[in-house]
Amino acid sequence: MTEDYRPMWTDLGLDLDAHDALLDVLGTAYKDIYLTQKNRPEGMAYFDFVMSEVHGLRIKELMDEKASGRKIIGSYCVFVPEEIALAANATLVGLCSGADFAMEEVEQLLPRNTCALIKSSFGFKLGKVCPYLESADMVVGENTCDGKKKAYESLGNLVDNLYVMDLPQMKTENGKALLKSEYLRFMEAVEALTGVTITAESLKSAIGVVNAKRAALHRLCSLRKADPAPISGLDGLLANQVFFYDNPARFTASVHKICDELEIRIQEKKGAFPEKTPRILIAGCPQAVPNWKFPMIVETSGAVIVGEESCVGERGTRNLTADTGSTVDEMMDALVDRYFQVDCAIFTPNDQRLLNIQEMAAAYKADGVIHYGLQFCQPYIMESIPVEKALEEKDIPCLRIETDYGMEDMGQLKTRVEAFVEQLR
Ligand code: BJ8
In angstroms, rounded to a whole number, what is the distance separating the alpha carbons of residues 167 and 399? Predict the structure, then answer.
């Protein structure tokens, strides 16, 4: 890190010893997993820098924003619209949930058979190691899966600024009406928090900013369709992870910069892996920072990941919001239309997700799909069976795996992935 941020972390109430230990593990993992990759695009240096400063400079920026009167809103789900936060002069950040921490304390509040992502969000709070959570003026929980829904009841006892958003479970007109009323309620809560009234102008501009961010990732995704893949899956995932933390305009510019470089690499047939390397699409649960375990296994087993059907990936960024509305209400409808298309497995039925996976597998010329399920995640594990069937119909091999954030199953996973990759050759 470029500076001594310890006074800032102390002010935020972090446990400095625990936080040092976390940064130590994170730094080593990043070095071992990311910096040992070969043939990386030069533009990844920006993302390396962001990661090295993810608890440092970026937090300092957020603290400076707070000092100037801006509010910070933390979120655990892609259903929380960043556009509404930005339109009210607030900043939305993703909250840490990608590593095990303080598990003994966590398991006093949550059953052991809770998914790693939920346990992690509690661990970062109980261990006092997430500066994003501690700097947030509002923490948004959402009624998605049962695990999260019930966990927020307990999280409400740990944070005093939890706001819970209800979400539909069915893609019906009633479901859409619920989403709209919840987005309007969220808008009011954000306005109350910031003291800023959202106007047609501010909402339009916010939609533009978030659309630009997503469009930059669309460009990156489409470049990953090339063979040889110009960028590794690990690096592609990293860009998708940084999406949740970085300053939006800077993120957009940095992604375009790397895309310019990738276009040249494609022309020169320069890849992160050789041409004809088996291509894998990952589908399933989100992989939040610093959950790099599974892509690392895949990409050290002779395959390259060319896309992520995940909320930290295409499910989260797939659609843009129409920016043709001229009133706040019209634009809120446009936001509802956009977010209502997110094909999270909490919806029933969720056939569109199967079609999206089939389409993605074809578009990315994937030789196989690996369905990534976090242990105890009922919605995605249940859906992995229809996903496998839908892929069978298209003659696309599918491997379903279940894992967590621990390292105990690394050997077993590697053996299964290697066998799968061998089958794709
Ligand atoms: S829109 S995927 S970010 S809810 S892994 S906590 S589903 S038991 S994360 Fe998600 Fe929003 Fe849906 Fe996306 Fe539950 Fe499963 Fe755990 Fe999960």
Answer: 30
